[in-house]
Amino acid sequence: MRVLIVGSGLAGLECALTAHELGHDVTILTKGQLADSATAWAQGGVAVALGPDDSPALHAADTMRASANLAVPSAVDVLVSDGPDIVRELTERGAHFDRASDGELARGREAAHSVARVIHAGGDATGREIERALIAAIRSTTVTVVEHTALLDLILHDGRVTGVTTLSDAGEAGRWSADAVVLATGGAGMLYPFTTNPAVATGDGLAAALRAGAATSDLEFVQFHPTALAGAAGALISEAVRGDGAVLRNAAGERFMLTVHPDAELAPRDVVARAVARQMAADRAPAWLDATALRPAPDNAAYLAERFPTIDRLCRANGIDWSRAWVPVTPAAHYIMGGVDTDSDGRTTLPGLWAVGEVARTGVHGANRLASNSLLEAAVFARRAARSLDIPAPSGRSLRGTHHTPEPAGARTWRREDLQNIMWHAAGLERSEDGLREADAQIAHWAEQTFTPSTVHELEDRNLLDVARAVVRAALGRRESVGAHYRVDDEAARTDANRRPEAHHV
Ligand code: SIN
Q: Which residues contact 490 (CB under 8 A, 6 or more apart)?
C-alpha cells in the first residue's frame, strides 16, 4: 500500500524503514532536509531496561511515578517491554551506542530513574548518531524522500484521511494521496520564546490533526527542561550531566535543590524546572550548573570533553571553561507530553491516519515525561505503527504530488514573537486562571484574522496559533496542579515538597 510519512526524525525514519521492509510503497515528506529534526538534537540517550539491576517493571514504575501517575499503564508496559528489542534493532540498523570497558552498553543515570539505564552514543550525541544511522539505512532503500515540503492539511473523504496538502519552500502548493498517512512531525517548542527545540518544531502535524478533528489529549502538559544554557537560545545541557554528579547552585553558591526535593538535582524534571525558575526570580539572575567536580582537577576537562563533547563545544564556544567554572542555566520549553490520541499501534481516531513520536499522545508520559523516554517511545511506537498499516491493498497508483499556486494571503496583525511571549507568561512553567483567560481571548482574536499561508513561515505561524489555542484551552480545563501543569491559583496545590514521598519512593 501507499504510505505517506510526514516528518523525518527517529519516529518517521523508523516507521518508513519498517513499512518498507514489509513491502509498502513508502514516501517521506519533510519540511527541511532529511536530517532536520529534534532527534538530531537529543543528547541524553535512550532509556531502556538492560542492566542486571534493572527490569521492564522497574522502568515502568519510574515512568509512572515521573508521570504523576497519569500515564496509561498498558501503554507504558508496551514501551518498556518493547524497549530492549528496539535497541537491538537500532543497533542492527547501524547506530553505534557507547560501550563501557567491559564491552556492555554504557548506561548513564538521569533524573527520576532509580537505576542507571540511559544508553547513549558519541557521549552526548545520541540523537545525531541514531539519525545518521537511520538516514544511511533509508538512503539504501527505494523509499522516496521529498524534502523542503511542509504539511499544510490532511485531506479527508467520508471521514477517512486519504492524503495531505503541502507547501514547498518555493511557495508551491501540493496534493498527495495515500492509503495511509503517518504523522511524525515532532513537537511544538517554537510556541515559546525559549526552547531547546530546533526551528522546525512548529506543531505542524498536531495543528493539521486538530483542524481535521482528530482527538487529542494532555496538551496542557508541556515539559520545560531545567538546564538550557542561559543566553544561548535554548541550547540544551543534558540532564545526563546532573546524572553524572553536577549540581545546581543559586547566586549565593548554595545548592538550592537540597531543600526542594530529597532527590535534589535528580528530582522529576518538572520539579527541578520550577525550582530553577523560582530561584532565578528570587536572584534576578540565572541559576548555575556546577560540573567542576565530576573528576578531580586536572582530569575534569578531559573527562567532560570525552563524555559530553557536544556540551563541551557549546560551553567553550560561549567562553565558558566548564571544567572550572559554573554554567549559567535557565529553563526552556522542551517537549509536549500531549498530542494526537493514538492506540498502542499509533492509530489515531481518524481512519487512515497514524501518529508517532512527539506529535502522538500514546499515553506513556502522563503529566511529566521521564528523561530519555522520548527516543524510546518514538522508535517503539513507530515500528508498531508500521506493522499495523493494515488497510486495503495498493491501488496500483504511485504516490505523487500535484501542484498548484496557493491563494493570496489575507492580513493579520500579530507576529510569532507576540504569540510566544503570551505563551511563556500565561502557559509556561506556572499558570493561572486569569492569565490563561487573557491568553485565550487574545489568541481567539488573532484566530479571527484568517489568512492563507503563502510561505512556510506563515504556515508555521498558523499552526502555532492553532496549537497554542488548544494548549491554553487544555490548561484552562485542568484546574489542579499536576506534573508539568502548575496552577498557582490551585488552592489545594500539591506543592513540590508534598510530592516528595511519591517521587522518592522506589
Ligand atoms: C537531556 O539530555 O537532558 C534530554 C533528554 C530528554 O529529554 O529525555
A: 479, 480, 481
- Over the stretch 126-180, which tens digit does the pLDDT of each residue have? 999 999 999 999 999 999 999 999 999 999 999 999 999 999 999 999 999 999 9
Burial of 156 (0-12, 13-18, 19+ CB in 10 A): middle
Q: Which residues line ligand 1 (CB under 6 A)?
A: 43-44, 238-240, 334, 371-372, 374
Parallel, antiparallel, or unpaired: how do β-strands 327-336 and 287-290 relate? antiparallel
Q: State the helix-helix crossing angle for 126-139 and 73-92, rounded to 10 degrees.
A: 60
Residues 267 and 112: beta-carbon distance below 8 Å: yes
- From the alpha carbon of 334, which atom of ligand 1 is closest? 7
For the whole model, what pTM was predicted?
Answer: 0.93
Ranges of the chain whose pLDDT falls below 50? 392-400, 497-498, 500-506
- Residue 215, helix vs strand vs coil: coil
Non-local (6+) Cβ contacts of 460 within 8 A are: 150, 190, 202, 204, 416
- Looking at 242, 269, 383, 462, which residue is catalytic? 269
Distance CA 28, CA 468 (A): 27
Q: Is 269 a catalytic residue?
A: yes
Assess whether the previous peptide bond of 298 is cis (omega < 30° from 0). Answer: yes
Residue range 254-282, pLDDT digits in tens: 999 999 999 999 999 999 999 999 999 99
DSSP 177: E
Beta-strand runs (E) in 260-352: 287-290, 327-336, 339-341
Pairing, β 339-341 against β 360-361: parallel
Angle at alpha carbon of residue 20, lines to 16 and 25, rounded to 5°:
100
